[in-house]
Write a structure and sequence with these properties.
The structure is a single chain. The protein has seven helices and nine strands, in the order E-H-E-E-H-E-H-E-H-E-E-E-E-H-H-H. By secondary structure, the protein is an alpha/beta fold. The protein has one domain: Class I glutamine amidotransferase (GATase) domain (Rossmann fold, 3-Layer(aba) Sandwich), CATH 3.40.50.880.
Length: about 240
């Protein structure tokens, strides 16, 4: 199996739980550290899928690597190569496929529920999950749903939380979180957070953290397993049976 290529845009926003899942099964992957100045690979022929992680920048910023990733996503989508985006990564996918990215009405930071938008696509990608579940959020911008894509998730504070099209899954929320990542993000921004209805304090984020992360991992198992299904059927037989 050719490796999955994962793009990291900020040092503290790596693949998190996705890396743990890939290591367990095992599914090969490689990490492109844009934050360390690594170039955007121009080929897609040597990989089985592309994953785009989050970051504090905007997809509308005039950064050379953003333009390069947008072109890469367009090429991958035309080739029906599986694409997965988290937060900034989802916004990149939306923009590359003809959507727009702009300010969300409010910042959405911390643990907040998302709701499944019922339909054939969400029943396929989110099979067996409750109609609402807690996810982790950290964003001030939002994307529109590109033409031909189907929305599958929304939240009280952000209408567009996820969409699918062909072999592409784009998520505004962060399902890749581990306890370590939550602690690192909360600590790094402790003095910058202004708690309110849609923004939690660092202390609120870390309450009951082990349980929250365990439940989020179960959500991620379902989403990641479905995204990986066309890539590695033989390696995924045990994920859905996880206790």
């Amino acid at each position: 199996m050719r490796p999955i290529r994962i793009f990291r845009h900020a040092t503290g926003e790596g693949p998190g739980y996705l890396r743990e899942l890939l290591d367990r099964h095992p599914i090969p992957y490689e990490l492109v550290c844009i934050d360390n100045g690594e170039p955007v690979p121009q080929t897609i022929d040597d990989v089985s899928g592309l994953v785009f992680m989050g970051g504090p920048m905007s997809v509308n910023d005039p950064l050379p690597w953003i333009a390069e990733e947008l072109k890469l996503i367009q090429r991958a989508a035309e080739a029906r190569l599986p694409l997965l985006g988290h937060c900034l990564g989802a916004q990149l996918i939306s923009k590359a496929l003809g959507g727009t990215v702009s300010a969300n009405p409010v910042q959405e930071i911390g643990w907040h529920p998302v709701q499944i938008i019922d339909g054939p696509a969400s029943r396929d990608w989110l099979a067996g999950l409750p109609t609402s579940f807690q996810a982790f959020h950290w964003h001030g911008e939002t994307f529109t749903i590109p033409a031909g894509a189907t929305p599958i998730l929304r939240s009280r504070y952000c209408e567009s939380q996820g969409f699918v099209i062909d072999n592409t899954l784009a998520l505004q929320c962060h399902v890749e979180m581990t306890a370590g990542l939550v602690c690192d993000w909360a600590e790094a921004a402790r003095t910058e957070l202004v708690p309110g209805a849609s923004v939690q304090s660092a202390q609120q984020m870390m309450q009951d953290l082990a349980h929250r992360v365990t439940e989020l991992n179960r959500i991620a198992d379902v989403l990641y397993t479905r995204w990986l299904r066309p890539l590695a059927r033989s390696q995924l037989t045990s994920i859905s049976a996880r206790p």
